[in-house]
């Protein structure tokens, strides 16, 4: 694994760059996505623990629910979207409920179905942490992707850095432009 303090120019070429490898472009692109996902997850773990005091998997649940304001989602749908076994999800939801971050309720019109939604406490924590989390994602992606890949991904991640990787303390500072952004619904 690369040292997070390395400069991107010190890293080996990105697997999606043109070359004489055996992989077709689709598989090279998939390898870049896997490397990027791994880098983001690795850097996010400590920021998520520090800012939200939840595990990375619990954080993913919170993020998924944050994209479905107020109404929540059925637990079966959360498990499907995250690719998690329902039994593991039940445990994680119980931990989040115990922390006061989600609520569970019966699905409307279906006694067997269970919906889960964010609490106001969770919404507040996500709002407070969003700048540091976004900066961490952008820094991690900027670290593992070459210039062409960063340009391609910038439509999905507008804050993606053009140059050097984030320093370990970058997640503690919130850029001024992110503090002024309206809070998500």
Automatic annotation (TrEMBL):
Q: Could you tell me what this protein is called?
A: HTH marR-type domain-containing protein
The record's SUPFAM superfamilies line, in alphabetical order, gives: Winged helix' DNA-binding domain
List residues of the HTH marR-type domain: 26-162
- What is a single molecular function from GO for this protein? DNA-binding transcription factor activity
Positions of region (Disordered): 161-185
A single BP term in Gene Ontology: response to stress
The organism encoding this protein is Streptomyces phaeofaciens
Show the PROSITE patterns listed in the entry. HTH_MARR_2
**Organism placement in taxonomy:** Bacteria, Bacillati, Actinomycetota, Actinomycetes, Kitasatosporales
Here the segments flagged for biased composition (Basic and acidic residues) are 168-185
């Amino acid at each position: 694994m690369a040292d997070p303090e390395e400069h991107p120019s010190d890293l080996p070429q990105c697997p999606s760059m043109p070359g004489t490898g055996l992989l077709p472009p689709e598989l090279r692109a998939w390898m870049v996505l896997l490397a990027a996902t791994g880098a983001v997850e690795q850097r996010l773990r400590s920021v998520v623990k520090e800012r939200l005091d939840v595990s990375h998997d619990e954080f993913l649940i919170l993020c998924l629910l944050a994209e479905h304001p107020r109404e929540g989602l059925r637990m079966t749908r959360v498990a499907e979207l995250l690719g998690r076994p329902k039994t593991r999800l039940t445990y994680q939801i119980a931990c989040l409920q115990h922390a006061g971050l989600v609520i569970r309720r019966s699905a409307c019109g279906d006694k067997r179905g269970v919906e889960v939604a964010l609490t106001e406490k969770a919404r507040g924590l996500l709002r407070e942490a969003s700048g540091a989390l976004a900066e961490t994602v952008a820094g991690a992606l900027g670290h593992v992707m070459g210039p062409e890949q960063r340009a391609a991904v910038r439509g999905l991640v507008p804050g993606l850095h053009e140059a050097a990787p984030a320093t370990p303390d970058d997640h503690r500072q919130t850029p001024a432009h992110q503090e002024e952004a309206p809070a998500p619904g």
